[in-house]
């Protein structure tokens, strides 16, 4: 499963879990690409067979507010449909940003994708 443009957010699937892998911060992309791919990411989550979301930060050391806002919208959408969300593979700097923004209190961080997937599927 990939977004049609697939520059900003790589999308993968593991059962009923949508895995979103931000590929960089907005400075590396045109705003229009970010906007289009964020809409595609949210639309993919409309699939009733997808219940949970894991945001995998493995591809980038730190992300800015625009990409983080897409991450938040995606996690909230999973929660609105009764699913869970989690983060994984954040760098020390990214983990500090998530902690400072209190996002870790809403969606936990795991050191591996496998742990995050198991956690959201366990409920």
Helices and strands in order:
Layout: E1 9-14, E2 17-22, H1 31-44, E3 52-56, H2 65-80, E4 85-88, H3 92-100, H4 103-106, E5 109-110, H5 113-122
Parallel strand pairs: 2-3, 3-4, 4-5
Antiparallel strand pairs: 1-2
Helix pairs in contact: 1-2
Account of the protein in words:
This protein has 123 residues and is α/β, with parallel strands linked by helices. It has one domain (9-122): STAS domain (Transcription Regulator spoIIAA, 2-Layer Sandwich). It contains 5 helices and 5 strands. It has helices at residues 31-44, 65-80, 92-100, 103-106, 113-122, and strands at 9-14, 17-22, 52-56, 85-88, 109-110. It has a 5-stranded mixed sheet, sandwiched between helices. Strand 1 (9-14) and strand 2 form a beta hairpin. Helix 1 packs parallel to helix 2. The longest helix has 16 residues, at 65-80. The protein starts with 8 loop residues before the first strand and ends with a helix. The mean pLDDT is 89.
User: In angstroms, what is the radius of gyration?
Assistant: 13 Å
Give the terminus-to-terminus CA distance: 24 Å
Summarize the helix and strand pattern as letters.
EEHEHEHHEH
CATH architecture field: 2-Layer Sandwich
Number of helical elements: 5
The overall number of domains is 1
């Amino acid at each position: 499963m990939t977004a049609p443009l697939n520059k900003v957010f790589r999308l993968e699937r593991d059962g009923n879990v949508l895995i979103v892998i931000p590929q960089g911060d907005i400075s590396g992309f045109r705003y229009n690409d970010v906007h289009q791919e964020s809409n595609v990411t949210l639309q993919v989550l409309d699939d009733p067979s997808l219940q949970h979301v894991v945001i995998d930060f493995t591809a980038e050391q730190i992300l800015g507010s625009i990409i983080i806002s897409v991450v938040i919208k995606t996690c909230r959408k999973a929660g609105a449909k009764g699913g869970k969300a989690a983060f994984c593979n954040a760098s020390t700097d990214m983990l500090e940003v998530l902690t400072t923004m209190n996002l870790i209190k809403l969606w936990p961080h795991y050191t591996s994708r496998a742990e995050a997937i198991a956690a959201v599927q366990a409920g």
